[in-house]
Amino acid sequence: MKKIVPILFVVAFFAIGAFLASCKSSGSKSNPMSPAPGADVTITITGINGSSSFSPNPATVKMGQTVAWKNNGGTDHTATADGGAFDTHDIPNTATSSPITMSATGSFGYHCTIHPSMTGTLNVTP
């Protein structure tokens, strides 16, 4: 019994250390194309800036990949395809939309339905 207690203590010590190490932030800046949880690609909403409202713009993804929009624009926004191919619906400030699977190739113009001057293009390649 005396040998089991030290072994359990050592195992617990290393488990806690591994957990804390995995929680440590790298301190690097966010990449606008880094994926949101559950998305292959994330596009950042930067604010009401016309064709500079979405970053990157244009964005390119492969057919079958998922795309999400991260709203850093200070108020609610959307990303809605001009032809209706996709619609994020309202995305509150600091929130990320649900991932949308791109199931067709082409160039898709999109806009914010709340602020129509906000425009972007999503290119979906084979």
Describe this structure in words.
This protein has a domain of 85 residues: Immunoglobulin-like, CATH 2.60.40. It has one helix and eight strands, in the order αββββββββ. A four-stranded mixed sheet has the order 2-1-4-6, with no helix packed on it. A four-stranded mixed sheet has the order 3-8-7-5, with no helix packed on it. About 22% of the residues have low confidence.
| Low-pLDDT segments | 7-34
Number of helices: 1
CATH topology annotation of the domain at 41-125:
Immunoglobulin-like
Beta-strand fraction estimate: 25-35%
Instruction: Tell me the overall shape.
Output: globular
SSE string, helices as H and strands as E: HEEEEEEEE
Under the CATH scheme, which architecture of the domain at 41-125 would be assigned? Sandwich
* The CATH class of the domain at 41-125: Mainly Beta
| Relative helix content | 10-25%
Biggest sheet character: 4 strands, mixed
Look at the structure and name the CATH superfamily of the domain at 41-125. Cupredoxins -  blue copper proteins
What's the average pLDDT?
A: 81
Radius of gyration: 21 Å
Instruction: List the strand order in the largest sheet.
Output: 2-1-4-6
- What is the SS-derived class? alpha/beta
The end-to-end span amounts to: 63 Å
Q: What is the strand tally?
A: 8
